[in-house]
Amino acid sequence: xxxxxxxxxxxxxxxxxxxxxxxxxxxxxxxxxxxxxxxxxxxxxxxxxxxxxxxxxxxxxxxxxxxxxxxxxxxxxxxxxxxxxxxxxxxxxxxxxxxxxxxxxxxxxxxxxxxxxxxxxxxxxxxxxxxxxxxxxxxxxxxxxxxxxxxxxxxxxxxxxxxxxxxxxxxxxxxxxxxxxxxxxxxxxxxxxxxxxxxxxxxxxxxxxxxxxxxxxxxxxxxxxxxxxxxxxxxxxxxxxxxxxxxxxxxxxxxxxxxxxxxxxxxxxxxxxxxxxxxxxxxxxxxxxxxxxxxxxxxxxxxxxxxxxxxxxxxxxxxxxxxxxxxxxxx
Length: 331
Hints:
Blueprint: E1 19-21, H1 24-33, H2 43-47, H3 65-77, H4 82-95, H5 105-111, E2 128-140, H6 144-150, E3 157-166, E4 172-179, H7 188-194, E5 199-203, H8 211-219, E6 223-225, H9 241-253, H10 261-267, H11 273-285, H12 295-312, E7 320-322
Parallel strand pairs: 2-5, 5-6
Antiparallel strand pairs: 1-7, 2-3, 3-4
Helix pairs in contact: 3-4, 3-12, 4-5
């Protein structure tokens, strides 16, 4: 029996894979060092703190974009309101006895809307295994406890954060912020175009299944690992070639008892769980909400959070290996 939309049997559950950390001593030290913080402004940043005049007859900026980015990064890292972030920056400048002005909270709020943020991706020279997904970040509304007890209220609003993660290096390669109505497949091209370098594979869940998305992946010279929907057929259009290969392979490996489990194991689809872990990491370290109220500032806030997470990777990463064989659903 081939894959079809009438298949209703529940998927059997297999044994869960367990992992053991290979470099626990180094990783443990890295986790400690993430909190071992010494604040200072290095000479290069101090030299670029003030904005350069553009020579035009209008009011010139006092602070460079770098100065604004530094103070906003302190705000996000220590989860401070704008006024407290200004106070921390003032204390830092005073402690270092630097002759530098400090941007006030009003300037920080205004300039945050136009900042261009680099995620600080380090090139490893290795092909990228890109994983794509999205998550919601709260803008306003009640907390989780009250929402679960009394149900969601109409004031509860969210933004969506679309992420592209490199499975191999653990770095966030691209991030796009939209309102809550931003569809995942619609913003997939933005994620893909923002990733520089050679992409080897692209993994995502079934919501990204479309001929256009498969074709974009193929044009980047990458292998798509996206499950086609139930009842998918072979299309004659040339741009459907990449998707047709996945549909044919899923048909070949399909089993009425295990469904698409064999294809997911053999294709490496389950690596997609890494990006779900990264979203959990973002919400634990940076936070599950944003403090600003307009989308431009929220975008900067999220991108700075992603940059901080990428910076943390330089302290060290966890290296693990499987100690239990994957599920043997398919023989």
